[in-house]
Amino acid sequence: MKLSLAWLGDYVDLPDDGREVADRLTAAGLAVEEIVDYDGDTLFDVDVTTNRPDCMNHLGLAREVAVLLDQPLRRPSTEPVSVHRGPGQPVEVVIEDREGCPRYVALGVRGVKVGPSPAWLVRRLESVGVRPINNIVDVTNYVLWETGQPLHAFDRKTLRGGKIIVRSGGAGETLVTLDGERRELDVETLVIADADRAIALAGIMGGAATEVTDATVDVLIESAHFDRSRVRRGARRLGLSTDASHRFERGSDPLGCLEAAVRAARLMVELAGGEVVAPAVDECHTDSMGLGRPAELDLERLNRFAGAQIPPADVERWLEGLGFEPERVGGILGVKIPSWRHFDFEPDESGRVEPADLYEEAMRIYGFERIASTLPALGEPDSGSSASYKLRQRVRSLLAAAGLSEAISFSFHAAADSRRWPALASQGKPLALANPISQQYAEMRRSLLTGLVETARYNQRRGADRIRFFELGSVFPGGQAEEVERVALVAGGGSGMPWDREPEFDLFDLKGVVEALAAAFGLALAARPAALSGLIAETSCELFAGGELVGHLGQIDDPALPYPLFAAELRTDLFQAAPAVVQVELPSRHPAIAMDLTLTHSVETSWREISEAVSAEGASDLSEFRLKDRYQGEGVPEGAVNTTIHFLYRAEDRSLTQEEVNRGHGVLSERLRSRFERPVNA
Amino acid sequence: MADPPPDEIAEHLTLFEREASEVADRAAWDGLRVRWIGRKRGLVRSLLARLKDVPPQERRDYGQAVNRLKETVEARLAEVDRELASQERGAARQAAAVDVTLPGRRPSLGTIHPVNRVIHEVVEIFIGLGCSVAEGPEVESDYYNFEALNFPPNHPARDTQDTLFLEDGRLLRTHTSPVQIRTMLERKPPIRVICPGRVYRHDNDLRHSPMFHQIECLAVAEGITFGDLKGTLEAFIQRLFSAETGVRLRPSHFPFTEPSAEVDITCPFCGGDGCRVCSRSGWMEILGAGMVDPRVLRGVGIDPAVYSGFAFGLGIDRVAMIRYGIPNIRMLFENDQRLLRQVTG
User: Do A354 and B258 touch (CB under 8 A)?
Assistant: First the structure.
């Protein structure tokens, strides 16, 4: 919001350097974001927070400046210059909706001559970004920018039936506003009406039919207080925001109406001639608003809250300047909340003003920068647990160490994506957004793979010869199910350069990372073949831990990919933190004897069957066995595969001899051969 | 049988010397050794075997001569063995020679996303300051996201243009502050938590992403002061950026804190002198802070007359952008590996 330094100077003496004023205002919560030279004047671009509508004008900001610089505030004169005391106001004001409009002041000025405003007024309005129109309308805008009270001027002769009625809009009722738009009204919208029709949107914009024109002779000034949320709802519904609605929405000064109307009338007579019709009509029902609420500021508590020693006399002087009318009794300052700050001091249920709201006043004028920095005097660390965070961080470290880079994708996807990837839990109705950014982001994701596979494709399109990604985040199964955390992996490709000795990534590279990850968190995975959406059925499987489905993996089913990609997704809720005590198995002091066995068997026979058979044999002194290699090709019959198993024999208590190992291994080999080495087509 | 001529030993010695000088490899050396000192048919052995045929008066001299021959042969063989071994080591070294300027094969390490990297840094700082980590759901109710945080029913932040709502009436949290409410409802003071997480706004343009990350700190206990807020902020910011970083608090307004402050730091790019990044101001607005509003405390059953607290929230994405020189928030979520893989260490 742009405000003029010269204009501020009407109400308070300013130092030569505007920057000093700007710095003090910024330090007191009225951030001057930019200082602009404007035709000999200086403009402050002030970021006024929503709770300070009283500073969205020059007089209000000058009040702050006066306190900050310890200078007196000069208020503009509101004494009318020429008063007509005839038969009184030519209108009757009826407020039907007192909640929507607690106060309505109507003040006439008759016999004006509408014309252009003088240069000084035009200049001031233009400096704050207001377009000059004519001397009457310009005065209403000037007073708004001076005092913060939005005003409206009607051409009195256009009002029908001598009445101003504040009421709700009727169904089907319309109004052409000053901007020429025909507006549909409804009961939610508060309107100003005459005896026949709506003539203005209360607190938002006047109507075209009653606007002041060059032909206007008699003017009726409206200076009212409208309810904040009522104006807000109306403005939002109509998609309108004006200088008036901006202020009413944030809360105008309910006690400032009359003064502003008189100020405007005085200026109109000065600039356009004519005379004020006195006294004003003042329909005032602000008693129930609880204005001027009393409150107490405990100076000792203030200092304890701030962690500072703020001199009581200073606090008293600042609050006086800000309009709180403080009275000091011992260590307590009794204050009254100024009507222009009414909405910034919302009381608790018992009607008591929050002490912190008053502490803030003292602290912001004192200056946050003067409060000494300390650390909380708390001996013990917090009693909460950071275990789940640490577990997640460990997942990240492990996967990064395994060569994968972490991606972060948006948590939403298109409706069509909701069943693209396999489910890991029962899924309800997808969580759809009521106001999505776009249809591409219509629902909450149910799988991390949607985003991660798109990330992989994005990188492939940009020429990546290898993809290594993981993501850790929440998915939203939908229905009544709560969001759950998953980890997903997508990888494929390789550098393809012999020097790198890096074979092209395949399904078992991925499975190995997944198994290592699960093992790090105490889970042993068993893979069961399963046809899963989005994955090539011949490659895909579900992963179980202790009988529970915890994940799946497979090759992504997309012939358009430049090289195969492999994907996995895992639940992390069963991941266990490492136990506090882990007992290691001490390495044997006796040497092991290694033996190999190659079985030529049907491709239909799974490694799982073979490995279970080896385990079931319970060969003596067999300490471990591993898959050494698989081979298909020359020398191996069609439909068969060579599986070479590496066995390690070791005894705990002695060194084995080759002869005894040969005997045992021979028996084991025979049994495995006779079980698995059947002729393929027999 | 004739007596062995006394000079036969000398001839053997000469013969051996000649043969030894011709040894070129390990096989030849082996042959030489077997021929001369082999246990079964070695020449030395057969010379000794003839000792019984030598006349008794010559035996002593003969035996000594053969023994000298044996010693000489053994010593010479050992010498040749050393020469051979040295040659062999040299050959092995030759075979191992490489061009050490060829590139090493680096283990292909992955990376943690810049945003999570910064989150972790911040969390570690606060764990060091005695905080624990608290987390909460991303899908929230109006109560936790707004009502309990003292957002009036008609507050602009509740408008549909800012909040992403679900069709079932819930919403995507617009900040991590609901975690503060959940923590205060679960536990009694003293509380010191750090709450990282994803948040959402109905914003999608070059400078805004509908999803981003925040981290909030909440401390509630008896006697917490505004000075404690300042001190904690300074300790945190100076650890995250540098010990020289200046911190400035400007009064501001948030529904859930009173008083509230915008926190600026001296621009990390120019150190406060003013540059393009900070619009020549020397300052960069980085987080929002304040003393927990008494209405918020009362709402979760904590008596503001006894307890006080502070809270502050930081946009992580922005810090990551500053830290890694990423000009556009949207680049953080494009996940281009060429960018992500640079963020290591």
Answer: yes
Closest Cβ–Cβ partner in B190, B204, B333 for A408: B333
A62-81 pLDDT per residue, tens: 999 999 999 999 998 777 77
CA distances B157 to A437, A626, B311, B316, Å, are 17, 60, 19, 20
User: Which A residues, 170 through 189, put their C-beta within 8 Å of a C-beta on chain B?
Assistant: none
Cα–Cα distance measured from residue A134 to residue A215, given in angstroms and rounded to the nearest whole number:
12
In whole angstroms, give the CA distance from residue A338 to residue A348.
Answer: 17
Strand, coil or helix: A615: helix
Q: What's the one-letter identity of residue A96? A: E
What counts of helices (H) and strands (E) characterise chain A?
A: 16, 30
Stretches in chain A below the pLDDT threshold 70: 86-88, 679-682
> Which of the residues B106, B155, B162, B167 would you substitute to probe the A interface, choosing the one with the greatest number of A C-beta atoms within 10 Å?
B167
Please give the Cα distance from A302 to A309 (Å, whole number): 9
Q: Please give the Cα distance from B112 to B135 (Å, whole number).
A: 20
B219 touches chain A (CB under 8 A): yes
A243-259 residue pLDDT tens: 999 999 999 999 999 99
**CA B293 – CA A382 distance, rounded (Å):** 21
DSSP E strand boundaries for chain B: 132-133, 139-140, 171-172, 191-200, 211-222, 247-254, 257-266, 283-292, 307-315
CA separation, residue A583 to residues A521, A578, A579, B102 (Å): 16, 12, 10, 44
Helix, strand, coil tally for chain B in percent (to 5): 45, 20, 35
Point out the residue among A304, A464, A469 whose CB comes nearest to the CB of B225.
A304
Tens-digit pLDDT profile for residues A97-150: 999 999 999 999 999 999 999 999 999 999 999 999 999 999 999 999 999 999
For strand B191-200 and strand B132-133, is the pairing parallel, antiparallel, or unpaired? Answer: parallel
**Contact status of A468 with chain B (Cβ, < 8 Å):** yes
Q: Three-state secondary structure along A75-90?
A: CCCCCCCCEECCCCCC
Between chains, do B224 and A376 touch, taking CB under 8 Å as contact? yes
Neighboring chain B residues of A390 at a CB cutoff of 8 Å: 133
The residues, any chain, with a CB within 8 Å of residue A465's CB and separated by 6 or more, are A493, A494, A495, A496
Taking an 8 Å cut-off on Cβ atoms, the answer to whether B228 and A375 are in contact is yes
Determine what percent of chain A is predicted with pLDDT higher than 70: 99
Of A287, A289, A291, which is closest to residue A338 (Cα–Cα)? A291
Chain A residue numbers touching B200 (CB-CB < 8 A):
411
Is B266 at the interface with chain A, CB within 8 A?
no
Q: Tens digits of per-residue pLDDT, A635-668?
A: 999 999 999 999 999 998 899 999 999 999 999 9
Is the pLDDT at B247 greater than 70? The verdict is yes
B109·A403 Cβ contact <8 A:
yes
ipTM: 0.86
Phi and psi for B342 in degrees, rounded to 5? Answer: -80, -20
Contact between chains at B337 and A469 (C-beta distance less than 8 A): yes
Contact A400 B111 (CB under 8 A): yes
Is B183 or B282 the better-scoring residue by pLDDT? B183
Yes or no: say if B200 and B190 are a contact pair by the CB < 8 Å rule.
Answer: no
